[in-house]
């Protein structure tokens, strides 16, 4: 009998809020944060407002080395530990698996580069820590006293879902009993916006900011970048039960693959993404017909949604499970999107309430069961998909208790 | 702003502390919890704030214990020996440091002030 993996702690920093209660309330009342950045009125962003890392860590001198994405990782980890009620001594042998993105805030970090000259007197001695991908892990390990197996995953928008998947496997296979897993990211800086704008992946245009993000709608025009983080305490099921932990859900399966097709665009038939989905379903020991709800990647780009719709239709046919698209609520969290979407899905499951896909008025595929109005759905088995630049595919199957 | 106030502000920033909790007599490592990377940042910050060259080994007393050993080997007076190598510290402060070696790293906030003031005069 293979070991089971429970989720026993959740920490989340999202544009919908920082607690289950805030998030479910904002999902029900449409409390989104879409707005225009001060420096570019052609794009729309979904920022996390009122976030202060210090309110999580207290005095913590390593804070100065954390870029905004790393700050979301650390804050979420602190909250995940708090919510799990775990004795901190147990964390010594825990693992740590973080999905992070690159710090693209080049102009903010080096605001006066001239002819390639970056040096200036007020540059920190260890400025590079704000760019290294594993700075968040280093800070979390120091804060929480973690010393076990670990991995920082940088697979673009599949990074945090893959970090969670790798942690799941380590526990399932007996290498670890406990692991913190998740991720954080922010690319709302000028550099981040410039990068995705140049790549033609962003929504650009005038009109109402909160109408810009419209996954699976035939008038979709690209994604709205978001930010945030979410971290989970994963725990071997018996370990969790022995200590009387609250069990939010069970992770049952993980699959990953890589398209090998294009540096940015998904492979149009989603054949390789499907490989990851089927691997996760197989590992979970379920059938497609057992899936109660799909948390789609749903970026609102022409290519992603088209490919993902084909994939879901092949998998489920015409009478498939309800499909949600959390990015229509929080924008695209980049490396953090999988962790954010898992966190919000768990909150929805606990509340028996699943939100509509915002701005979906003319679906791009007529035979998929898109959720068009927020409603009570008794969903116990979730399929969660993320597909990133570089053809990175990561999929989880989660079961409620 | 006087040197002490600037140094307190820089330390507060690097160590994520309140300025009011940083006193001239505070031990930077023993009490304020600075580690080697924090001293590295402090050197960079002092250089930028005062436009002075900062010698890490001197200002942070990194070779203090080597010097004490050398003085013993040479059978010279340890205070006089240290005063030659750490000219920014006054004799009475050096005597305090020598009597305090067993307690751990002896560097205090006021030693940084002495270094900066000495550098400003002596270049």
UniProtKB/TrEMBL annotation, chain A:
GO biological process entries: fatty acid biosynthetic process
Cross-referenced InterPro entries: Beta-ketoacyl_synthase, Ketoacyl_synth_AS, Ketoacyl_synth_C, Ketoacyl_synth_N, PKS_Beta-ketoAc_synthase_dom, Thiolase-like
Record-listed E.C. numbers: 2.3.1.41
UniProt-listed Pfam families: ketoacyl-synt (PF00109), Ketoacyl-synt_C (PF02801)
Location of the Ketosynthase family 3 (KS3) domain: 2-400
GO molecular function, one term: 3-oxoacyl-[acyl-carrier-protein] synthase activity
A GO cellular-component term linked to this record: cytosol
Enzyme class, broadest EC rank: transferase
Keyword field: Acyltransferase, Transferase
Domain of life (superkingdom): Bacteria
Family: Belongs to the thiolase-like superfamily. Beta-ketoacyl-ACP synthases family.
Name recorded for this polypeptide: 3-oxoacyl-(Acyl-carrier-protein) synthase
Provenance organism: uncultured Desulfobacterium sp
Lineage of producing organism: Bacteria, Pseudomonadati, Thermodesulfobacteriota, Desulfobacteria, Desulfobacterales
UniProtKB/TrEMBL annotation, chain B:
Protein name: Phosphopantetheine-binding
Carrier domain span: 1-76
Alphabetical UniProt keywords: Phosphopantetheine, Phosphoprotein
Pfam families for the chain: PP-binding (PF00550)
């Amino acid at each position: 009998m293979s070991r089971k993996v429970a989720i026993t702690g959740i920490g989340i920093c999202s544009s919908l809020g920082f607690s289950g209660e805030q998030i479910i309330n904002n999902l029900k009342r449409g409390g989104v944060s879409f707005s225009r950045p001060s420096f570019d009125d052609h794009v729309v962003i979904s920022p996390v407002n009122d976030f202060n890392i210090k309110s999580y860590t207290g005095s913590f001198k390593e804070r100065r080395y954390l870029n905004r994405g790393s700050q979301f990782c650390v804050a979420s980890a602190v909250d995940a530990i708090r919510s799990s009620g775990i004795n901190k001594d147990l964390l010594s042998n825990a693992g740590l698996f973080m999905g992070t993105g690159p710090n693209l805030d080049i102009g903010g970090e080096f605001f006066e580069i001239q002819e390639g000259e970056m040096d200036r007197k007020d540059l920190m001695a260890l400025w590079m820590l704000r760019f290294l991908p594993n700075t968040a892990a280093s800070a979390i390990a120091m804060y929480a006293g973690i010393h076990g197996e670990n991995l920082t995953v940088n697979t673009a928008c599949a990074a945090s879902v893959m970090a969670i998947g790798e942690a799941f496997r380590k526990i399932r296979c007996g290498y670890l009993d406990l692991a913190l897993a998740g991720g954080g990211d922010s690319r709302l800086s000028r550099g981040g916006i410039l990068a995705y704008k140049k790549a033609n992946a962003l929504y650009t245009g005038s009109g109402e900011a909160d109408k810009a993000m419209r996954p699976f709608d035939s008038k979709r025009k690209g994604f709205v970048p978001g930010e945030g983080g979410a971290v989970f305490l994963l725990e071997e099921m018996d370990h969790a039960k022995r200590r009387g932990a609250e069990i939010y859900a069970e992770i049952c399966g993980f699959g990953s693959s890589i398209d090998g097709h294009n540096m940015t665009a998904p492979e149009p038939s989603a054949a390789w993404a499907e490989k990851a989905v089927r691997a996760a379903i197989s590992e979970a020991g379920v059938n497609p017909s057992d899936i109660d709800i799909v948390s789609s990647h749903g970026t609102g780009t022409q290519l992603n949604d088209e490919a993902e719709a084909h994939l879901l239709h092949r998998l489920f046919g015409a009478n498939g499970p309800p499909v949600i698209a959390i990015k229509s609520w929080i924008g695209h969290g980049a490396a953090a999107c999988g962790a954010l979407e898992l966190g919000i899905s768990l909150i929805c499951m606990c509340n028996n309430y699943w939100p509509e896909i915002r701005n979906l008025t003319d679906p791009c595929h007529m035979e998929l069961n898109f959720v068009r109005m927020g409603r009570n759905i008794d969903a116990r088995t979730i399929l969660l998909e993320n597909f990133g630049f570089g053809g990175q595919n990561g999929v989880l199957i989660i079961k409620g208790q | 702003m006087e040197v002490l106030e600037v140094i307190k502000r820089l330390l507060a920033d690097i160590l994520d502390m309140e300025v009011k909790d940083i006193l001239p007599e505070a031990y930077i490592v023993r009490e304020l919890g600075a580690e080697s990377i924090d001293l590295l940042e402090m050197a960079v910050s002092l250089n930028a704030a005062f436009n002075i060259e900062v010698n890490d080994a001197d200002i942070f007393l990194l070779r203090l214990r080597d010097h004490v050993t050398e003085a013993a080997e040479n059978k010279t007076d340890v205070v006089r020996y240290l005063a030659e190598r750490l000219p920014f510290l006054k004799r009475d402060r050096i005597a305090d440091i020598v009597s305090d070696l067993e307690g751990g790293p002896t560097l205090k906030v006021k030693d940084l002030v002495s270094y900066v003031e000495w550098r400003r005069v002596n270049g």
